[in-house]
Amino acid sequence: MSSEFRELLKKIGSGTHTHKNLTRQQASLALEMMLTGRATPAQIGGFMIAHRIKRPTGEELAGMLDAYSQLGNKLSIIDENKEVVVLGIPYDGRTRTAPISPITSLILSLMGVPVLMHGGRRMPTKYGLTLGEIWTNLGLNIQNTSLEQVQTSLAQKNFGFLYLPTHFPLADNFVTYREEIGKRPPIATLELIWHPYKGKNHIMAGYVHPPTEKMIREALTLTGVKKFTLIKGLEGSGDLKLEQTNIIAIDDHESEAGFKYLKLNPLHYGLKGHDYPLHSEQEYFEQLSKTIKGEMTPLTLSSIWNGGFYLWRCSVVETMEMGLSKAEELIMKGDLHNHCHSLSENLNYV
User: Model pTM?
Assistant: First the structure.
């Protein structure tokens, strides 16, 4: 048992009226002790529950990011002048709506925007369809690539994927605790904004609850991240919705607050459709394959909507309208299929 960790646990777990928030340094130490096993399993489980009940602060989340930065792998700089887009997707996957982010990442990387994704195996609380499974179905064996292969892929093809069990096993060990406590701990929020890249980052992540967005902004500011896009997207992902106005927080260094909100309604751009339900994983895989080959599918409109926004937000095009036009062109010509095949063939992902 660690008496030092016990004091940190007592600080956050003392009840509604007497608990205290951790400093950034204390939060970093707490997570470091959990990741390295200096805290006991009982202490780790207790911390996860107590921290969830208390609710984390932006400063605590910044400290936890410090611990991830210290103990996790980081990819080296591929270009001093380029921002790497880090797409933060909930690790527990999707169960209700079809994921669009793989198509978005293909669009961005094909247009010269480096994209880094990360995730792991199936985990609670949703045990939903994971990014790793999607990319494997598309022919990219992201689960068995070395860190050097990921680095090469990011540098040469503008796409990389860090798989937790392979590239950050210390963090993957937490899955067992999450299964046993049955609740999503604050670490799940940390995963959305983890940026394992040493150069300039553009954090593009999803969220569900407005307090989470505020906490993420505070954590990113404290850790020196200057470029961010936070989307109240489908199932907490960065996938824009087709059926309603999307609320998006982006950095704005000219304003006193340091950020501003965008409200994007697809109807304003002539797009009217539905967010495609995840009826079955096999059906999704079939529709995904058809979509990137250029066939019109129930995923096509969402793919154009998301692709257009991300191209515009990443400064590939000057306007949303231009982004939508370019995304539609890339999708309908089958360019995404060729790009995906190039990723798997030329860089030995399979």
Answer: 0.96
Q: Which pair of structure tokens corresponds to residue 321?
A: 């309208």
Q: HEC states along 222-277?
A: HCCCCEEEEECCHHHCCCCCCCCCEEEEEECCCCCCCEEEEEECHHHHCCCCCCCE
CB 85 within 8 A of CB 108: yes
Whether residue 183 contacts residue 52, with contact meaning beta carbons closer than 8 Å, is answered with yes
Rounded to an integer, the average pLDDT of 19-33 is: 96
List the one residue out of 61, 130, 134, 140 whose CA is nearest residue 92: 130
CA 37 to chain centre: 26
- Three-class SS state of 337: helix
Q: What is Dmax (Cα atoms) for the chain?
A: 62
Mean pLDDT of 286-298: 98
Classify the phi-psi angles of 234: left when phi > 0, otherwise alpha if psi is within -120 to 50, otherwise beta.
Answer: beta
Among residues of the chain, what percentage have pLDDT more than 70? 97
